[in-house]
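Module 6 notes. Inverse folding takes a fixed backbone as the condition and produces residue identities as the prediction. Think of it as a translation problem where the source language is geometry and the target language is the twenty amino acids. Below is one complete input and output pair. Work through it position by position during the lab.
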């Protein structure tokens, strides 16, 4: 085995392979040469070269998000490390396991005018599960033992107690390109996962509280849950006192669930608010997209709020937290569900479902009358996505429009809602599509698309990736948000009109591309998009910048009409 002669680099690569890391994303550089040599010598790890560090970080995030196992990410020293920060922050809040390995110059050169040298130790610390600084030299057994122990801990911290990114900073002194013909003798320490559960008395007390309550609202956040969570949530939704609300990115569907929250709650008013306000709120999962439900729950302030999360303490999004339940939903739901009894005098679930049905009917009628705009485009696009497809939603228009439409249960939705940034949604989808080799649809506004166009400066592009770019002339969401829309003089600073042609950019990457400007060309374009291509295909859909916000405002106004 012809590995690096730097012990730290060779040890990291060997321990990653022993620890189940099967993929590494490598950004070119010189200071990281020992890491490049060591990882390329490991046949058990597949390397990917991505030139742009920011894009590489999100590509690695997309891989790890779908594989649900740690992906290593390597870059050189200096500002290259800072370019990984957006993806690291997203991985932290989305709980995606990344092992970020950054090469560094010896600490002695920090702040001494040496090139590509910054204050790199713990530079990512606010948004990682652990920061590890390895020694520059390992001259004896004690130093090598410390190095191996630190690497073992870093690998395990990507998954336990909850998944997330870990930063390992490795200083290398020159020479950098030396090789050694034997792998280092290192020992992998295996950390065994454990399952925490509620004590029987606690579980019974919580079940009794659900049984006694007349209005229990369950709100599920972002996640991709197993069948057990779905089944137990279905069982809970059968109780007459329970209503279950989910979003597209919750990936939870059920016949009694409210799955279009923004659409449903627009019809809440003085005539029905008392029937819909919860006494008990139960939440779990990641970020909630809907600003409306967050504002409403902060106004309502339920008497009790239980948040279920094994890794986040005192998570008080709705300013009403009463119970911090430190277990996973997979443990919590069966423990409380098996003993919760129906409150036969309650009709809370039916009240929410009546509201949902009424707004669904209005939604259908409004779409039949609406002109060519973002709303009608999303209606058509979501209806034509093939079965068993992964759908990635860009920030911020795409992910919000998707919440207004009923979804097929075999579609799986993803979005970078950990930080809700626009900078890496394309690269994340590129990595995800490569990891799964499944049909993967990215729906994204053209501003976010242009911002992350280096996603296609990448040799690892799956032909199963289908990209739909909604081009409405800029950050169109700001024409709808109250505040920026009322100040025409400053609107351009929020909306950021760019004057760039998304289709021309796509063709510069030699990717197949078509454009749609009305419903007929959209339908034919979608048929073309989901045909067979040897590279990612892109459909650019052009919608009117001034019409779409007006239609959306009128849409919500009509949903609010109690008649």
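Target side of the pair, the amino acids:
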């Amino acid at each position: 085995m012809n590995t690096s002669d730097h012990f730290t680099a060779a040890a990291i690569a060997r321990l990653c392979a022993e620890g189940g890391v099967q993929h590494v994303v490598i950004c070119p550089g010189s200071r990281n040469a020992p890491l490049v040599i060591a990882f390329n010598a490991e046949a058990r790890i597949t390397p990917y070269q991505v030139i742009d560090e920011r894009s590489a970080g999100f590509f690695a995030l997309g891989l790890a998000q779908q594989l649900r196992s740690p992906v290593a990410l390597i870059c050189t020293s200096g500002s290259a490390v800072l370019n990984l920060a957006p993806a690291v922050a997203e991985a932290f809040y989305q709980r995606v396991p990344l092992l970020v390995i950054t090469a560094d110059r010896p600490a002695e050169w920090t702040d001494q005018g040496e090139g590509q040298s910054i204050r790199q130790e713990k530079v990512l610390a606010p948004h990682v599960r652990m920061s590890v600084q390895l020694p520059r030299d390992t001259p004896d057994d004690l130093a090598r033992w410390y190095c191996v122990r630190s690497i073992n801990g870093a690998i395990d911290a990507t998954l336990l107690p909850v998944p997330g990114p870990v930063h390992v900073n490795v200083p290398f002194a020159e020479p950098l390109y030396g090789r050694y013909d034997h792998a280092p003798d290192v020992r992998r320490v295996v950390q065994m996962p454990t399952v925490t559960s509620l004590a029987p008395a606690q579980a019974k007390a919580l079940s009794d509280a659900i049984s006694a309550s007349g209005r229990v609202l369950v709100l599920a956040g972002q996640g991709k849950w197993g069948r057990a969570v779905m089944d137990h949530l279905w069982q809970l939704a059968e109780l007459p006192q329970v209503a279950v609300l989910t979003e597209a990115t919750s990936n939870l569907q059920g016949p009694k669930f409210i799955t279009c929250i923004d659409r449903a709650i627009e019809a809440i008013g003085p005539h029905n608010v008392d029937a819909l306000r919860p006494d008990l709120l139960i939440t779990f999962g990641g970020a909630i997209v809907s600003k409306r439900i967050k504002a409403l729950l902060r106004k309502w302030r339920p008497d009790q709020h239980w948040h279920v999360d094994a890794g986040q303490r005192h998570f008080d999004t709705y300013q009403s937290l009463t119970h911090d339940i430190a277990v996973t939903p997979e443990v919590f739901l069966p423990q409380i569900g098996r003993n919760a009894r129906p409150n036969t005098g309650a009709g809370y679930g039916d009240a929410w479902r009546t509201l949902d049905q009424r707004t669904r009917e209005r939604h259908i009628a409004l779409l039949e009358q609406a002109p060519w705009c973002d709303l009608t485009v999303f209606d058509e696009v979501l209806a034509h996505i093939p079965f068993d497809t992964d759908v990635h939603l860009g920030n911020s228009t795409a992910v919000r429009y998707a919440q207004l439409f009923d979804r097929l249960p075999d579609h799986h939705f993803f979005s970078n809602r950990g930080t809700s940034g626009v900078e890496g949604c394309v690269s994340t989808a590129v990595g995800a599509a490569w990891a799964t080799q499944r049909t993967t649809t990215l729906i994204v506004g053209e501003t976010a698309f242009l911002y992350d166009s280096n996603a296609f400066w990448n040799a690892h592009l799956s032909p199963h990736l289908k990209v739909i770019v909604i081009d409405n002339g800029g950050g169109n969401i700001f024409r709808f948000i109250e505040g920026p829309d009322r100040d025409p003089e400053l609107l351009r600073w929020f909306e950021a009109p760019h004057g760039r042609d998304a289709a021309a950019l796509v063709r510069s990457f030699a990717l197949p591309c078509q454009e749609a400007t009305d419903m007929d060309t959209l339908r034919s374009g979608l048929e073309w998009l989901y045909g067979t291509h040897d590279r990612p295909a892109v459909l650019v859909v052009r919608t009117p910048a001034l019409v779409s916000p007006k239609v959306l405002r009128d849409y919500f106004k009509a949903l609010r009409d109690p008649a």
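Reference fact for the lab report: The two ends are 76 Å apart (CA to CA).
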